[in-house]
Amino acid sequence: MSAPRKSTKPPTSRAINLLMVMQDMSVAEQIFGTLAHEHPLKNLQHVQTTEAALSILNKQARVSMMAVNLSDFNSNGNNLLSLLTQVPEHTLLLLFTPNMPHTPQWIEKLSHYLGKGNEFSAQAADGQAVHDTHALCDEHSRLTLNAISDAIFTCNTHGEIAYTNSMARQLTGWSSLQATGKPLEEVLILADEYSNVALSSRVRDLLLNSQGNHSCNMVLVAKDAVKTPVDVIANPITDASGRPQGSVIVVHDVTHNRIRNKLAYHDALTGLPNRSLLGERLNQAIILAIRHNKQVGILFIDLDHFKLINDSLGHDSGDQLLQSVARRMEDCVRTSDTVCRYGGDEFVILLAELVTPKDAIHVANKLLKAFTFPHQIAGKDLVISLSIGISVYPADADTPLMMLKHADTAMYRAKAKGRNGFTLFDQAELKYPSIL
């Protein structure tokens, strides 16, 4: 190994020979100790986060070589990409795995490179070694991006795809050859999870703004029409002077998160929203009603004589009937309304943005008519009627809890009147008991 070139001036903060980006301080100190012993005048610097490394690069520091430990940052692909895309052209980037820093050969090779001077790429005498190292960096970059569990797209300033990693190809169904050069919105097709409306404008926003987190109940639609719930993050790609070079878009599969949320906020038997989700949506509905000068309706529903059916035909038939009831109720309301299984044989329907209480009465009549038709359960035709209590915000109550209590009270009044009907809440009904 050639002797290191001596410098007559101490290094400045703007001339960093080696910037180590790794979280394990002990490994960094081991490497620094070995290198500093042979090159005491070299400016070796260590940071533990990608944000700290970006801060150094953004200050236009002259960094000859930057070494990044991939294992520290694979869990946050977006931060790693932000770092990789902002490394200046004059900086040699070395990506390594956890085992590499512990090998004497790696330390010796790095020490040899540092001994060639500040301008690493210009001063290194061993051209083949430089070529091999660049090839190693490219290979590590490719393997790293393909190992990240998020889908990654990079685009030029025209919004045309320049690169897709393995997960991007898997989620979209587009091969690298097919996707390269295509407009991003042609490959990254996003849609609203509930309405299935295409969100092509959202993709254009990603390209225009290149910044921010977009996670408004979106799904990615693949070539074969398979839909995957996703969150999307976009960041700009700039050169050393800050000029835009394109965008990097990271798409995170949130299928498991949505499943967990569904389990937490939905009834396991019917799939309907549960009490928790009803509470959130009722709060939101009241806020929107105030803003838009509208009203909110609550229909508290009890299935008449359900216990008799459940006891005589068995719990399996009872469960099938509850599922059939849930689907029929959903068919009677708008997509903006919420049908909730409140518990047992009780259901609550939230009617958002009503114009008058008559709108709630119309839905109640629609339900009563729909339930005159039988349900096909275990080879039998079962007819079950409903007792419905109605309360309306703001006339009957000014809080979600009071709306539910008053609708429940009105429902008991409907039962007392003979079932298979509805009753509007009024203050006189407060003498009837509530089970809430």
What class, by secondary structure content? Answer: alpha+beta
Biggest beta sheet attributes? 6 strands, antiparallel
* CATH H-level superfamily of the largest domain: Reverse transcriptase/Diguanylate cyclase domain
Radius of gyration: 32 Å
Number of domains: 3
Proportion of helical residues: 40-55%
Low-pLDDT runs: 1-13, 116-137, 432-436
Distance between the termini: 82 Å
Count of discrete alpha- or pi-helical segments spanning 4 or more residues: 17
Strand content: 25-35%
Q: Number of DSSP strands?
A: 17
What is the CATH first-level class name of the largest domain?
Alpha Beta
> Whole-number average pLDDT?
77
CATH architecture classification name of the largest domain: 2-Layer Sandwich
Strand order of the largest sheet: 6-5-10-9-8-7
The dominant shape is: elongated
Assembly type of the chains comes to single chain
Any idea of the CATH topology of the largest domain?
Alpha-Beta Plaits
